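Before relying on records like the one below, remember that each one covers exactly one chain. Contacts with other chains, cofactors or solvent are not represented anywhere in the record.
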Amino acid sequence: MKTYDVVVLGGGPGGYVAAIRSAQLGQKTALVEREQIGGTCLNTGCIPTKTLVKNAEIIRQAKNSDYRGIHIKELTIDLEQTIAMKNQVVGQLRQGVEGLLAANGVTVFHAAAKVLDQSSLRLDQDGEIIRFKNLIIATGSRPAAIPVPGAADYAQTSTQMLELDQIPQRVVIIGGGVIGCEFAHVLQSFGSQVTILEAMPRIISSADEELSLALEQSMKSAGITIKTGCMVKEIRAAGEEKEVLVQMDGQGRNFRGDQVMISIGRTPNTDSVAGLGLEMKGDYIKVDQCTRTSLPHIYAIGDVTGIRPLAHTASHMGKAAAETIAGMDSKYDDSIVPSCIFTSPELAFAGMTEAEARKQYQDINVGRFPLIASGKALAMGEPEGIFKVICDGADGKLLGVHLLGANATEVIGEAAAFLKMGAGLKDLEETIHAHPTIAEALQEAALDAGGRCIHMPPKERQ
C-alpha cells in the first residue's frame, strides 16, 4: 500500500498547482485525476473557448476591414479545421502540464477514486488503496442542469458545443452569464443567429450595472437578441428544430433554434468525498482562509468550495493549501479577484461595483473615460467601450475598477495590483503609462475621478 504526504484529488488548475507546489516543498505527492489533466479550464473551458474567441475576432476584423483599405472578397470558415486547431492547442498545453508534474516528481494516477476515510482512498480502476497524510480536494465542478422537461433530451452543455460539426443557423442560449455571452459572441461571429434567454434583469449580473448594460447594448447592436427576466418552462422538439418555452412579462413565449445551449452555472463535484462527513455550506465544502475543511488534514480548493469559481482563484487556493500543509503561514485572500469576460468588446472588473461602493461609503468619486477618446483604440479600430474607476471620496482610496473595451482583460491585471496594494487615486494618476496604449485610458479614468481628465472636454465629464 502506497503512502503519500499529500494526495491531491483532481488535476485542474487548482489541483495541479497544489501538487506541484507540494512537491516543491519536499512533500511526497500524488495527484489523482479521473478524466484529463488540466480539468475543465484547460480541456473544456477557458483555453478552448479562447481559441474560438480569437477566431471570432479575426472574422470580425476581416468583415470590417474595408475602411482600412484591406479588401477581402470572400470569407469562409472551415469548422473541422477550427475544432482541430482548438484541440491541438488544448493537447499541447495538457502535455505541458503533465511534463511539469513529472519534472517535479508528482506521481499521477489516471483513475476515478473514492475517499474511504480521513487517511485513505480507493482507485476505482483496479481497487488499489492509497494512503495519505494530507488530502487536498480539488474535484471542481460540472455544468449545472436545468430542471425543466426536455432539457436532457434537447439541449447541449457548453462542453458539447465545443465539438460542433456544423455551424447552426439559429442558436438559443439559456443563461446570460460569462459562458453564455462568450459563446454568443463566437457563434454570432461564425454566422449563427443567436438569442440569449436570461432569468436576471440583465446579463453578467455580477458586473457593474453601467458596464453590464453597455455590453448588453453592444451585443444587441451586433445582432444578438437578448431577452431578460425569462423563466424557462420547457424545451421540446419542433420539427427539425428545438423550441424553448419561457415565461416573461407575465406571458408565455417561445424561441426556436437548431441548437439549444444551457449555461446557467456549475455544480460542484462532491460525489467522491460524500461519505467523509465534511461540513458543508449549501452544496459546497466549507473552508477557512487556509483552505482547511472541518476535518483535520483535509483541505478543499477551487469550484468545490463555491468561492469565486474561477481558474485563477483555484490556483491561488492550491498554492495556499500546499504551503499550509508544509507549515507555512499562507492564506487565501479573495478580496481582490479580477473577472474577465472575453466578448467583443471585452469586459473585466475587480473590486467593488458602483452600487456596492455607494452602500458602504458615504461619499465616492467615479471617473470614466470612453475609448472613443483613446488614440490606441481608434488606431486599432476598436473605439467601443468605457473604462471606469471608483474611489473613496474622503481619501481617494481605489475601491473598484471596471473596464469595457479592447484589451480590458489584460489591463485589469494592473488595476488589480493597485487595488490589492490599497493604492489611492493619486498613485494611479501619477504612474506614467506608455503611449499609445489602451492602458492610458485607465489613467485618464482616474484623472477624471479627481476632475483632472486631460483628453476629454469638461462638458463631457459632467
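Residues 79-103 form the longest helix (25 residues).
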